Amino acid sequence: MKNIIFITSRLDKDHGGLTASLLNKARILYDYENIKSKVLTFHADHNFRETSAEIKQRYDLEGKVDIINLNDFFRTQCSNRDKKQYDVDTDGLISVKVNDNKMEYYHEGLKKLEVTYKNDLIHEVKHFSDNSICVKKDIIDKDGYLYWTSYYFDNKLSRQVFYKLDKTPVVTREYDATSNKQKIKNVVLFEDTPIRFGNFDEFKEYFIKQFITDDYTYLVGEARALDPNIMNITDARVRKIFMTHSIHLRPGTDVIRLGNRQVLNNLNDIDALVLLTQQQRQDIIDRFGYRNNYYVIPHSIKISEISQKRTRDKVVLISRLHEEKRLDHAIKAFKQVVKAKPEATLHIYGDGDERTKLQNLINKLGLQEHVKLMGYSSDVDEILQTAACSILTSQYEGFALVIQESIANGTPVIAYDIKYGPSDMIDHGVNGYLAENGDIEDLASSIINYLNKSTSEQQKFSAAAIEKASQFSNENFAKSWVKLFEQTEKNKTVFKPEAKLININQKKINKNNYKIDIKVKLNAEKYVEPEFIGVFYHRSTLENNKISKCDCVDTKVTQLEGDLFKIEVPFHADKYKKKEIYDLSLEVKDESQYHNIRIGNQRESFNIQNLATRKVKPYYTKNHDNLSFKL
Question: Could you tell me which of 257, 275, 293, 272 has the C-alpha nearest to residue 220?
Fold first, then answer.
């Protein structure tokens, strides 16, 4: 029995696509592979049981997944004492009704308590000092049991105590009350033998470890904030898998997004990285090196039953009305579309802070009769089935789920060719069109081109869309995940190589040809024969990782003993362009490990200046001690 645990920060009744994809994944694994999984959450929610039950019903997860919350787990551990419901003592206090859901209680003119009700049950009780400052707040669950008490110092959270159902403390969190950041300093867990944790992360990791079994345990990281906690767990029974839901670089830059750095900078220490598109996988390989544990498993979708009649010149766009969605591009493109197709309409579904700005643009371009802001709608299938095509103009996406929804309804898509998603789901000229990213004229001409097609031609596009969507079936999705789990069961060989420059020699006949000798110790757990490749980076291209260039050269490898190797790297200056600096690194890699090591940290061993010629100057860079060759 596979022990699969999905790790996410929180689970709310109202949640976004990331949480929805996790819950659907858990359901599909059970429905198609009979795998019951667990979902671990870490937020404090006194309505957790109610929320969990509602979500299980909504996603058809009853009996298929266990949803477990950190606070609820320890709170409901067995106790020999009787349960005690919460009761607030108001004897001797004067009550004042604020509204139907709130009462205040006074003593000698000073407010002492403020009681908030929800569905006629006590929900929250605030305790006040003589200076009318809230010093304590009790949170009660819907069954009438005290969940936690928050204590305040100088209006800042200083401590929280969580309680079992018998009203005995189970967890205390101490906060840094010198700031408003609510940073947890330490945690105490009151078990038979109390345990003190130096920070909240240690407590979260202790919680995760409660579910590791002797069978393989697969920890699937679904929220970037919890990646460090998974990485910190060292247990031979655990396989660490990380799900990527969005782009990994800051838009328009080559800078890794903060939340992605923990995993991407430590790819040798994970068992699998799951990506939604082939394009993102290739970008990861280009930036971080090839490993065989990069998996592409796109979202799955069920083909919709077509029940609506299409309106020939109707175009739809489903999106949040946010700046990064570039909906102004769609509106500007439609100014050109209606000149060629006067009957064409664009219906935009969604809400957001750009609504007024977009309506003003519609008015300015005189498109009020052609472009409509329809607001949010949950009837996605009906919207898509009534349209001739849909469009997408986003600056970036993690997968562009709306494209998948569109083709599953037989609605071709015209989209900017962005990262990531469109090129994985749109076959240009077959089930839609890929327009040049940001090119409004190309977008407009693609829309016009499609709307000008005959009914039979559009029907072919529609059929091709459904055929493409069938590739993303639930069955294929489940099989891909099971295959991943099985492949990660094999123990990979981990090594952390160290490289030392030991010599640089010039050829006697051609002084511009060099042989660089490097000693490499793998520090491997067991015997491994990796591949060694010399890499000379072009200094002028290194400021932007998107366009960085390098030359790779074969090496001569000699095994000295055990995991100690001598590597010879050639540098033939005559083969390289002039007016460039070449920085040397050594790639050491096997199937699942990739290391890129700067070479040149032993400058005291020999006088490198004596190796210079009129054409080539070897030297060490100041910042990194790289061995570099200036031509």
Answer: 272
